[in-house]
Design goal:
Number of helices: 14
Shape: globular
Structural class: alpha/beta
CATH class of the largest domain: Alpha Beta
Strand order of the largest sheet: 7-6-15-16-17-14-18
Distance between the termini: 11 Å
CATH architecture of the largest domain: 3-Layer(bba) Sandwich
Number of strands: 19
Helix content: 25-40%
Radius of gyration: 22 Å
Largest sheet: 7 strands, mixed
CATH superfamily of the largest domain: FAD/NAD(P)-binding domain
Bound molecules: flavin-adenine dinucleotide
CATH topology of the largest domain: FAD/NAD(P)-binding domain
């Protein structure tokens, strides 16, 4: 059996790792000039290592990622991070919390006794209620997917204050969209399994995971700068065409973004399957890396500042001191702040507006600093996959509507997150292994 993997993000790389482990012949095609997708690193000549997208793994709620890292004997190379944070209220007040602990938010003084009791009561109810075992497994999430949106659920079950001071800051950082646009099965599973969260990253940044997955893959099977342009059926096989050539394979794993997969497969999909894939919602996203050759805040008490308040739209969801999160990502004595924007204000902001706002917010959060050494904007037209109410059900059905010999992988089957990608990539490869078992 020969397989083509299209897309070299964490989903495609996890699929490659799984096929390699099972001695399946495959080639992997990546459109960009290196693998990694939205987890790529950008190594600057002056020694800063910028994450173009993903920042951290989340421990026990990333079960397949952690299992594969353990299997590759790479888990011990993860750099742990406490995620010590502070909420920055509209009036300037600061409240310490930890990103890896929902219950640390209970101490926030804007919450009254009634709010705290509601959080504890809802937490306990969720703990005993059935939910997705893996919060990034789309088929498990689909079982609990209704019309409910996260804002309505949070206000009804946690109260308005906890919505503003607990749920909104966490979700603004993770997904940057109004909570009305998010479905509930993922955050509920997250609350239930909050005790398993442990933040970390490989020393070289999240992008290093892809290199680890491809460690034992011969370089002549990895085709970068090779966007796949067409897929045609030839007897029982698939012809994969790219600029300058084509190959014939038995099976396909398409691990691109949903809309690219839909268009590559358009001629081979039902109208229903195509529409389902195209319904995946990607949001505009921007973050800015602000670098300082001399750390202006060596003694700052926390690593993250999360702006909060009651109502209103905030431009920024989170600011992260990357030099604390991952010391090797900055030169000695330097600091780099990641400023993660919320999506709604971006539509009215130019690139220069975003950079200017980022520096202003950094000074407001951590204290006035010298002029930064660099300000690097990452702006994505389609940055994060967002699970709106009903999304998991719509996408989960797609697996059963695919042509024979085709598997899809990608974070969009649940929501943005390396675990979503890795889980789906591994699963796609395992499904193909089942075909092989049937063939013999
Ligand atoms: C700013 C930002 C911050 C994030 N932070 C985190 C975080 O802290 N933790 C976390 O777990 N997740 C985070 N994520 C999400 C995480 O990066 C994604 O969930 C993950 O990268 C998805 O992996 P994927 O393989 O499904 O897709 P992608 O990473 O998008 O990979 C798809 C690949 O397919 C390739 N491709 C597309 N078309 C073709 C074609 N025609 N032929 C060949 N190749 C093609 C693309 O070039 C790309 O490399 C973040 C994302 C962003 C944008």
């Amino acid at each position: 059996m020969k397989v083509a993997i299209i897309g070299g993000g964490p989903a495609g790389c996890a699929a490659a790792y799984t096929l390699q482990k099972n001695q399946i012949d495959f080639e992997i095609f990546e459109a960009a000039d290196e693998v990694g997708g939205r987890t790529k690193q950008l190594h600057r000549d002056d020694g800063y290592n910028l994450g173009t997208g993903a920042l951290f793994l989340m421990g026990g709620i990333y079960p397949r990622t952690m299992a594969l890292l353990r299997e590759m004997e790479r888990k011990k190379q993860l750099v742990p991070w406490t995620g010590a944070s502070e909420l920055m209220d509209d009036d300037g007040s600061r409240y310490p919390v930890r990103l890896d602990s929902f219950f640390s938010f209970i101490k926030v003084p804007t919450l009254g006794l009634r709010d705290k009791l509601r959080i504890i009561g809802t937490g306990l109810r969720l703990f005993f209620a059935p939910s997705a075992r893996n919060p990034f497994d789309g088929s498990q999430l689909a079982r609990y997917d209704g019309d409910e949106n996260l804002e309505d659920w949070s206000r009804a079950n946690l109260g308005d204050k906890a919505f503003e001071y607990v749920m909104r800051p966490i979700m603004d950082f993770l997904y940057a969209v109004p909570l009305r646009e998010l479905s509930t099965p993922f955050p509920k599973a997250l609350m239930k399994q909050g005790h398993k969260i442990a933040l970390s990253s490989p020393e070289g940044g999240i992008g290093q995971i892809n290199e680890w997955f491809l460690d034992n893959v011969s370089p002549d099977r990895i085709h970068v700068s090779t966007p796949v342009e067409g897929l045609t059926r030839e007897d029982q096989k698939w012809r994969v065409s790219y600029s300058g050539g084509s190959i014939l394979v038995d099976k396909l794993i398409i691990a691109t973004e949903a809309f690219i997969a839909a268009n590559l497969l358009k001629a081979h999909l039902s109208e229903d399957a195509y529409r389902r894939l195209m319904s995946t919602h990607y949001t505009e996203y921007a973050h800015v890396a602000v670098g300082y050759d001399e750390d202006p805040w060596p003694d700052y008490p926390t690593d993250i500042v999360l702006p909060v308040g009651e109502g209103g739209v905030r431009n920024v969801g989170a600011m992260v001191l990357h030099g604390r999160r991952l010391p090797a990502s900055v030169p000695n004595g330097a600091q780099m702040v990641g400023v993660y924007f919320n999506t709604p204000p971006l539509k009215d902001m130019s690139d220069d507006d975003i950079k200017e706002e980022a520096v202003k917010q950094v000074n407001a959060a951590f204290g006035q600093a010298q002029k930064p050494s660099f300000v690097h904007l990452f702006r994505y037209e389609k940055g994060l996959t967002i699970a709106k109410p009903g999304h998991y059900k719509i996408l989960n059905k797609v697996h059963s509507l695919l042509p024979e010999g085709v598997e899809l992988a990608g974070d969009y089957f649940s929501q943005a997150g390396v675990e979503a990608a890795v889980h789906s990539g591994e699963k796609a490869a395992k499904n193909l292994l089942r075909y092989r078992a049937q063939e013999f």
